[in-house]
């Protein structure tokens, strides 16, 4: 793996593998809905979900961004800036809803997901890119029989290092076999770190942004 790819690999793929394997216990044949599917962790979740045998639905804010999710294995796409997320998920799942929902966005998207989850579903709380930390309507968790599951890879790798190493052994095997192809959307010199942060804040990034040092 070249240095640029390696720099963008650990956090995005480490987070998404932990989320789908340990926290969601994603099973082959289940439906996985990924929000923010063109971003760093989201695109990794699309790619890993496909390799773990799930049917992947990718959701994002623009048709242009979602094209990369399609290339990385998503079977269906939802632009939640012009489509009703809940209704579209229901339509794509025969009215059942998604079995696992990967949410690094929060805000209004999380609210919609609580109404678009299947019985025994798992809603993974990964982050809050929208800027709003949602309030959980626990009555829906009761009615849906679903789980709201926190994902914190940083703590997991410290508390369960062997499980984390096993995750990376599996992912490195997939990289070697050509089944995982990390997408670096942009590289920027370290001096432009603030510009990179603004790109993330404005949700302009596709894949991973990597800062480079020297030549």
Task: Provide a descriptive summary of the structure in words.
The protein has 215 residues and is an alpha/beta fold. Helix content is 44%, strand content 20%. It is built from ten helices and eight strands. The strands form two sheets. The protein has a six-stranded parallel sheet, sandwiched between helices. It has a two-stranded parallel sheet with strand order 7-8. Helix 10 (193-201) links the parallel strand 7 (184-189) and strand 8. It starts with a helix and ends with a strand. The mean pLDDT is 95.
Radius of gyration: 17 Å
Strand content: 15-25%
- Helix and strand sequence: HHEHEHEHEHEHEHHEHE
The description of the largest β-sheet is: 6 strands, parallel
Q: Distance N terminus to C terminus?
A: 18 Å
Q: How much helicity do the residues have?
A: 40-55%
| Annotation, overall tally of beta strands | 8
The overall average pLDDT, rounded, is 95
Annotation field: number of helices? 10
Overall 3D shape: globular
Uncertain runs are none
Record the strand order, biggest sheet.
Answer: 3-2-1-4-5-6
């Amino acid at each position: 793996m070249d240095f640029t790819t390696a720099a963008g690999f650990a956090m995005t793929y480490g987070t998404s593998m932990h989320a789908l394997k340990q926290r969601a216990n994603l099973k082959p044949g289940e439906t996985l809905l990924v929000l923010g599917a063109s971003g760093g962790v989201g695109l990794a979740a699309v790619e890993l979900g496909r390799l773990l045998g799930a049917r992947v639905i990718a959701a994002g804010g623009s048709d242009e961004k979602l094209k990369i999710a399609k290339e990385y294995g998503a079977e269906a796409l939802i632009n939640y800036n012009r489509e009703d997320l809940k209704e579209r998920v229901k339509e794509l799942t025969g009215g059942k809803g998604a079995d696992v929902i990967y949410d690094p966005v929060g805000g209004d998207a999380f609210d919609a997901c609580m109404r678009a989850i299947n019985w025994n579903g798992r809603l993974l709380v990964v982050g809050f890119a929208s800027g709003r930390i949602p309030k959980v309507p626990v009555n829906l968790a009761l009615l849906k029989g679903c789980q709201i599951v926190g994902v914190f890879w940083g703590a997991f790798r410290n508390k369960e290092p062997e499980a984390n190493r096993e995750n990376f052994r599996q992912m490195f095997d997939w990289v070697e076999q050509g089944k995982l192809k990390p997408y670096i959307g942009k590289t920027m010199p370290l001096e432009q770190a603030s510009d990179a942060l603004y790109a993330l804040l404005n949700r302009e990034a596709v894949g991973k942004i990597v800062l480079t040092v020297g030549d």
